Each structure stands twice: as C-alpha cells, then as structure tokens.
Batch of 2 targets.
Target 1
Amino acid sequence: MPNEHVDVLIVGAGLSGIGAGYHLQTNCPGKTYAILEGRDCIGGTWDLFRYPGVRSDSDMFTLGYSFRPWLEAKSIADGPSILNYVRDTARDHGIDRHIRFSHRVKRASWSSRDGVWTVEAEHGPDNVVARFTCNFLFLCSGYYDYDEGYTPEFPGRDRFSGRIVHPQKWTPDIDYAGKRVVVIGSGATAVTLVPEMAKDAAHVTMLQRSPTYVVARPAEDRIANSLRRYLSPKLVYSIVRWKNVLYGMYFFRLCRRAPERAKALILNHVKAMLPNVDVGKHFTPRYNPWDQRLCLVPNGDLFKAINQGRASVVTDHIETFTERGIRLQSGEELAADVIVTATGLNLKVLGGVQLSVDGETIEPARTMNYKGMMYSGVPNLASSFGYTNASWTLKCDLTCGYVCRLLNYMDKHGYARCTPRQNDPSVTEVPWLDFSSGYVRRSLDKFPKQGSKAPWKLHQNYALDIMSLKYGSLDDGAMEYSRPTT
C-alpha cells in the first residue's frame, strides 16, 4: 500500500487536534492535511473520561475555541457538553472528513534529503502498519497516557473484597448506589467525583495524604448570561473571554507576588463555607497557591455535600487495604464497598511517538523547547501544549495560529525546512515546568527542557504569548530556515 502524503499531518482528534484542523484550513487553505486518531471517535480526553460528574475545571469562555462562541448557560461545563462542542465544531467545519480513526502513531522519521516526515501508525485491531508522509508534523495528542492512569502500590490491595477502580477506567457497570465509597486523592478528579457520587452513595469519603487548595465558583457566568440579552453571541464571548483571562492572570500574579495574601483569601472563603470542618487540617496545603493547580468546585458542590453529611474528608496515610476497606496509619479503618483511586495521570512525552532525524533517535529530554511548541534540532515539527495556570485551549489556539504563520512564511520565502537551533551560550537549562504536582515530578526528567530566556522560556502568560506568537518576528535568530535540496 503506497504512502499517503499530505502537507501537514496532525496527530490527535481531541480538543487541540480539531482546533488545529480549523486553523489550517482557514489560514492555510492551500495546504492538504489529515488527522490521525488512535481511538475510534472524536473528543480525546472528553470522550475517554466517563466517571461520574466529569467536567472541566476551566470556564468554557477560555477553554472554548477563539473562533466558536460557547452558547450554553453553564460556563463550568460537564464532559458530555464539552464533547458535543468539539464534535459539533469538527462536523460544522468539515474537519471530521480529514480524520483517520484507529490510527495509533508509533514512529516518525525525518529525512533532510527528501524534506519529509515518514509516519508509521498501527491501524485497526490487527495493528496493520499504515505509512504517511508529510512536510510538517503537528502533534496534538495531549500529555498523558490514555492506556493507564497512575495508581500507587497499595499494601493489601488484593485483600479488599469490594471493587477498586481508577477514574480513567470507569465503566457503566460500576454500581455505587447505596454503598460506602472511598475516593483516594485530593485533586481535580477527586473533588469532582465526591459530590457527584454522594448523590446516590450511602456515604463518600475523600481520603487524602495532604490537602489541595479548593476554590468555589458559580457554574454559570452571570455577566455572560446578562449580556446575551443585548449583544451578539460572538461579542459576548469575546468580552467574557477577556474578562476571565485578565482575572486569571491577576490572581496568578497575586499568588506569585503575595502568596500569603492569596492563601488567606482562599482559606477564609473555605472557612465560611465549612464552619464545622477543621479547615487547617483538611484544606490548608503545605505549598503556596498555584505551586500546583487549584481545584475548582462549581457552586461549592463539594462543600455542600460535606455540610449535608453525605461526604467527608479524611487526611491521613494508608497503612493497608483490608477486606472491608482501608486501615490508616492513625489506626482508624474506613469501611468501603467501592474504592476509587483518583491518584493521577501518567504523563507521556509527545504522545509516545518515537522520533528520529536522519536516522538519529531524538531523546526529548535532550532537546530544548522553543516557544512552548517546537524542539531544538527537530525540523518541521510542533506540538500543542496548553497552560498549567490557565485554560488549555488558550495556548493551543495561539500555537495553531503560529504554526499557520510559520507555514505561510516558509511558502512566501521558498523555504522547505525550519529548525530551532539553540546556539546562545547565555541560555541556561530550566525544568520544563515549574510545578510541584506529583504527576509532573514523576515524569519531568523525560520532558524537554526550557531555557532561561526567550524564545526558549515558557512564560505561562497569555498576553505575552499573544505578542510573541501572533505578532512576533518569525526570523528571530533561533529559527534556522533552509530551501529544498536539489
């Protein structure tokens, strides 16, 4: 079977990949493209996760695409609504016609002589190898392993007589109605699961080793819903998007410059919401706000479940699983019929694709990240990676726009190849992310480095990235361009 060739090959048909397809066909209409998706459907994260209450912890005015207004009343949307939004975008713009489903990309090799990437994907249940060639490779497959979530080794796990499930592997047959549930974890998934499961369970206990900052926010944006009575959906979307972006930037800056003040603001609100709970023990982390992501609870649903006695929080360490539940180091035993291990994700670098350039294997950890999307010494390749301190799609939209600018610039000047080169001796290596979350620390050594200054530094700042990616020079001295070889 001959190779299929396209100008741009996108990997992943989730939120980022569908956005990439839109930007390409809008801003580079002469380019051919295809999207390879490892699963059999559109949606990525929002199709994979099926656990109770699955939702975004970012508002849809910033998690949504810049080009497609969010029209629903709830700005903190549930997973099925987000999935519909992504699929509707793909259908309405004909992006779905470019997707090759059940194509799991395994390898990609660049040939400088031919000026193309050769991409190998395993297709279908028999893992038949399908080959594609492209001039530019755009990885939009996210940052975590879709096959397995992270679960620590718990002593005595095999002794437990009930059901144990990781949220990433949730299936419809899991029955928790009228049962005692223990959710292990304190992150975004745990604070989503607890109030939702508490609606039907006998009781839900959130068991955490240490607390996380939890912030309540209305599920609906009152300003947005009011403005919709007078202004067009597109204008309302733009106004509220910038309102939320600017507030997010302000609060992140406050957390960095005045962490004690930010901490007091968060904890005072929690104390007001939970007057009968030991907030110091259960909701006061050892780190400062935004050293890890904050957890968002729409309409304070977690706090309500706790106040109503349907849920509780226990802060302790696990000694062992038992036949009937979990025994803690304090000696207390938590009775459980179902245990949910909301213990995090396994990160996967560049979607797990094995890269090589002219026969030489590329180790991502030995590269330096250029403008948050490209990699030193790797030609004609970009990846879409969102913000850690704001909505994922804000950065992905900018990345897609930059890739289109880059492709058009290369066409205008007759270039066939663009390769970031780090030749500045004053630039020092810095860890890829300044984040203390466990899922990041476990995998940080496998990821590319960032640099100490632009264009190798990640600012995690939407306004700065707009200036750099939307309006900044494409010939900055760090990007090397070359014409086709003859």
Target 2
Amino acid sequence: MAFDLSTLPHVGGLTVGILGGTGDQGRGLAYRFARAGQRVLVGSRSAERGAAAAAGIAALDGARGQVSGGANGDAALGADVVIVAVPWEGHAETVASLRHPLAGKIVVDCVNPLGFDAKGPYALRVPEGSAAEQTESLLPESRVCAAFHHVSASLLAEPTIERIELDVLVLGDDRDAVAVVMALAGQIEGMRGIHAGRLRNAGQVEALTANLIAINRRYKAHSGLRITYL
C-alpha cells in the first residue's frame, strides 16, 4: 500500500495527555502539540509541577491549543491519547499505577531504556523486550503503540524553530490506533508518522536512540530520522 496521508483520521479534536510532561521530552512534545492547536494535559508526579509546566508551555510563542496540567493521573483520565514520557527508572511503577484510567485508551510509549558510561550511551535490556512491550504487559485493556523516540527535546522546546523535519516511527498491533498516532505526529509541522511494524519490534527502535545520541555528540547536532523514497 502506498503512503497516503489523506487516509489518516482527523485528530484535531483529540486531547493529548503527557505522563512525565515536566521532563524535557514530555514538555517539548506538549509544546509542539499546543502549537498544532491540540488540547494538551501535562502530567507530573506532583500536581503543582504539572500545573506550573502547563502554564509555562501555554505562555510560549505559537502555543494556541489549550494547555492545562496536574498529576499524571489527571492527564491519564482526561486525555484521549496518552504519551508515556517518564524516566525509565520509574516507568513500570508509573504505568502500572494508571491501569484503570488508561483502560480503553491509546497509549503511546516514547521511553528509551538507555544507560550511560564512559564509552557513551547504550541500550538496556528489558525483560519484556522493550519499554513499549512492558507498557503493553501492564496495560492489557489499553491500545499501546510506540512512537516519538528519535525527536530532539531541544528542537521540540525551541519556539524559534517552526518546522521539525523528521519522520516518527510508529509501531503497534492495533492498526486503527497506529493511524491515530501517525496523524498526531503529522500535526507537528515538518513531521510525518510512518507505520514501522508491530510492537514486538519496538526494542530495536528504542535502542537506535543510543546511536543517534552518539551521532549528535560527535557532530554537535540534533539529528533525527527521515525515511526516503516514501
């Protein structure tokens, strides 16, 4: 099947929740979706920190979608699509605690399980195979996808950058959920969402982030991925 953006669903009316929305990646994604006009719920372990982060995002140039914040549970309960952007160290605990408010919802895991030592970044081994598969095991009633792994937090958060020219690899077993996530990625100027296979392949996509970090350190860049001839 040829790549055809016109076949993707309309997602402009969806509310996007960000678990861990006070971290660099979560905050950056929240800002980009707010620039796209989406309603955004910023979640945090602390409701006060979530609210403060939301106020800061809403005040940035170009943010036109409604942005509010609170605890992670508030973001999980109030959103249509929820992005998991929490630190790997607290990933399992946070996801498991939100099983009930996330039931029936599209959950997008963008967490990269990485370690760092004197030689640089490296992928950590995850018993379930990947962070996304761990989320799937903890949220059996949710529609789990993996996406947004290779997007520079620095680029996301910079108001002077209008377009972010890269492709987002979207993985999942629920084709309708994958299509929604692809369409959401396309809401961000310059991005495309690309269906990159089933969730069982998320581990290699997460691990590739270590290579991108190494590239960016070597060349002092904020590189991403672009799938050519598509």
